Amino acid sequence: MSLGPRASWPRESPRIEAGPFRLRPFDERDLPLVEEASRDPFIPLITTVPAVYTPEEAEAFLQRQRDRVANREGYPCVIVDPTEARGIGAVGVWLRHADLGRASFGYWVAPSERGRSAARLGLAALTVWTFATFGIPRLELYVEPWNTASIKTAEGAGFRREGLLRSWETVGSERRDMFMYSPARDGSADVGSAAMDASRTSAQPSGDDTRSASTIRRWLLPYLG
Q1: How far is Cα 119 from Cα 107, in angstroms, rounded to an integer?
Q2: pTM > 0.90
Q3: Fewest Cβ atoms nearer than 10 Å: which of 1, 30, 127, 136?
């Protein structure tokens, strides 16, 4: 399918449910989340979270998220615990190669909030939203082989390992191997099949998240356990 001109794509990151969590755009409320993430030894290596937190660096991080959306390069989202109205992690879809029919995902959770399935549910919800909004045929993500927690997140959200990419990406100062994952499409009740079904309900990109909200809720049910 044709995605249409990038200028017609959504003008902000989605605001959607992800099980007991919600996804929304980054804003000033998320400065404490950025500060905690900057103290993690791994998150700054694989994201643009600053390794040394200062108010200026944190504001620059927020501006980078806004710029990604403004340039239609991707849609970064905060994972929010609605009971406390605070960000606990992030998930994003990156669309630099969307014209070639490919998009990729990334995610992280603050150290103090891990073990709650926030990344798994956020990834599943954003995957369905991406298919429903753009219909991009090839979605993928990359995980270092040692990162068992991230592997569990990807597989729990319906992604399946396809192979090993040797020296695929620079992390810190080293080239690292990466496992490649993509949503399964074998007809089983997983997010890949759910997302493909969702894509048939939405033919063109739109900023209206309500159109796919019921689809996302329905297809997230298997991941809420």
Answers
A1: 6
A2: no
A3: 1
